[in-house]
Automatic annotation (TrEMBL):
Signal sequence, renumbered to the chain: none
Protein name as catalogued: Na+:H+ antiporter, NhaC family
Organism superkingdom: Bacteria
Record's bilayer topology term: Multi-pass membrane protein
Main location: membrane
Gene Ontology cellular component list: plasma membrane
Length: 470
């Protein structure tokens, strides 16, 4: 939450000006002209800074706002660049092609989508990282889906749904640890309470992807995968040694080694495999790490499938992240987000309205703050007292924050999570969001539970709300 005590909270009308400017600009640039959202978010950040300045905030306060927001996410930006290197090296070394090859050979085609949902969920559960899962399993899944003739947006939706589900119920996930810690709720109580909403949604999502898989593959809509398997064998040496780098990364993450050194180990081990197994040179490796891997097989579909990655591929995404974070940081540090949230607090007379308001606030901050952590922390602090007043256990609030804050983050193109998915899988959130069933359906189910009073656990009699160790 903002920490400027020199001025009162800005009025609601003033806080709305940057929102309106950004919304109108995004409406024209993204939805009408199919342009990149960079300049629209820049206009939003500029208008937020100007509004704050003319209201009386010093330039140093405004500057510190966007600087602190960017500083908090420097590790995520570094991860973006490393993932770019990892993708290119793992393709060049044959790791991703090998995963795709065995996927083509052993896969039950009609069940690809529901199985990739579960596999992504399992990987994110044991690693605690949706990003690492999307950057490895997700990349291979996109290639397999192209061979099966499944639209890439649908596959991206299944990968994102599974990855964020596994991340949410993993005790090793940073965001899953952060959310209950904000309100002093026990971590495992928080996870167990989320299962009431996430498990039914997972079952529904599985069924949806099963039907889609049957429609696209079972009725002859799939492609001839032999084209891809032959191309992989012709251009890459397939060996069991190719699975060593993924095993190393998974082992390190399971040992709770932080994401950055774990992914660096994946890049380095992938480089070794590229040189020893694929016969690559150091010069080619250095070029691949920076500019990405380029395959020249003569087959346009195969070349397009495997030519990707590199640090350079992430520059557009990094610039978008920096601009969106600057916008959110200014809105937060000058109290304008706070002003909007206070206005929303008047809508919380019933438990259902309270739940819907928290969901809407988290989504709003995800859109205009572009940061899922802020979308959890700020509403959590603002609505804690409302939950206490209604004698609701705070694990109800943490579950709602996850549904509205964390799981909607990848559905927004300029949010850090949406940006990462676009950079990694090459599919915009606007394309895959309708198919990321678990992400948006969870928020709907949480709202229904709030209005119906399902699993909205209350404090018994005069039982105090305990702030348990997390």
């Amino acid at each position: 939450m903002y920490k400027n005590w020199d001025l009162p909270t800005p009025p609601f009308w003033l806080a709305l000006i940057p929102i309106v400017v950004t919304g109108v600009s995004l409406g024209f640039s993204v939805f009408k002209f199919d342009a990149q959202p960079h300049f629209s978010l820049f206009l939003g950040a500029a208008s937020a800074g100007l509004c704050a300045y003319f209201y009386g905030y010093r330039w140093d306060t405004i500057k510190d706002g966007f600087k602190s927001a960017i500083n908090r996410t420097i590790p995520s930006i570094i991860i973006l660049l490393i993932i770019g290197m990892l993708i290119s090296v793992w393709i060049a070394s044959g790791i991703v092609p090998a995963l795709m090859y065995y996927g083509f050979v052993f896969l039950i085609e009609q069940w690809f989508l529901p199985l990739i949902l579960l596999f992504s969920a399992f990987m994110a559960l044991i690693t605690g990282s949706s990003w690492s899962t999307i950057g490895t399993i997700g990349v291979a899944a996109m290639g397999v889906s192209q061979g099966l003739g499944i639209p890439p947006a649908i596959t991206a939706g299944a990968v994102v749904s599974g990855s964020f589900f596994g991340d949410k119920i993993s005790p090793m996930s940073d965001s899953t640890n952060l959310t209950p810690s904000v309100l002093g709720v026990n971590l495992f109580e928080h996870i167990r309470h989320m299962l009431y909403t996430t498990i039914p949604v997972l079952i529904v999502s599985f069924a949806v992807y099963a039907v889609i898989g049957i429609l696209f593959v079972g009725n002859g809509e799939g492609s001839d995968v032999s084209i891809y398997t032959k191309s992989i064998v012709d251009n890459f040496n397939i060996s069991v040694w190719l699975f060593v780098p993924p095993i190393i990364v998974i082992f390190l993450i399971l040992r709770k080694v932080p994401a950055i050194p774990s992914l660096i180990a994946g890049v380095l081990s992938g480089g070794v495999v590229f040189i020893l197994i694929q016969g690559g040179s150091f010069t080619a490796l250095f070029d691949t790490v920076y500019s990405g891997f380029v395959l020249e097989s003569g087959n346009e579909e195969t070349d397009a499938l495997f030519s990707r990655g590199g640090m350079e591929s992430m520059y557009n995404v990094v610039s978008l992240a920096l601009i969106s974070l600057a916008f959110g940081g200014i809105m937060d540090s000058t109290g304008m987000l706070h002003s909007i949230v206070i206005k929303l607090s008047s809508l919380v007379r019933t438990i259902g309205n309270l739940t819907l308001t928290v969901l809407g606030t988290s989504l709003f901050i995800n859109i205009f703050g572009a940061n899922q952590y802020l979308a959890v922390i700020l509403p959590g602090q603002m609505f804690e007292e409302s939950y206490r007043d209604k004698r609701l256990k705070l694990k109800n609030l943490t579950r709602t924050l996850e549904g509205g804050g964390t799981l909607t983050a990848p559905l927004i193109p300029w949010n850090s999570s949406g940006v990462f998915v676009y950079a990694t899988l090459g599919i915009s959130a606007l394309e895959y969001a309708p198919y990321a069933v678990l992400c948006w359906l969870t928020a709907i189910v949480v709202a229904i539970y709030g209005y119906a009073g399902v699993t909205m656990h209350k404090l018994e009699n005069d039982e105090p709300e305990e702030n348990e160790d997390v």
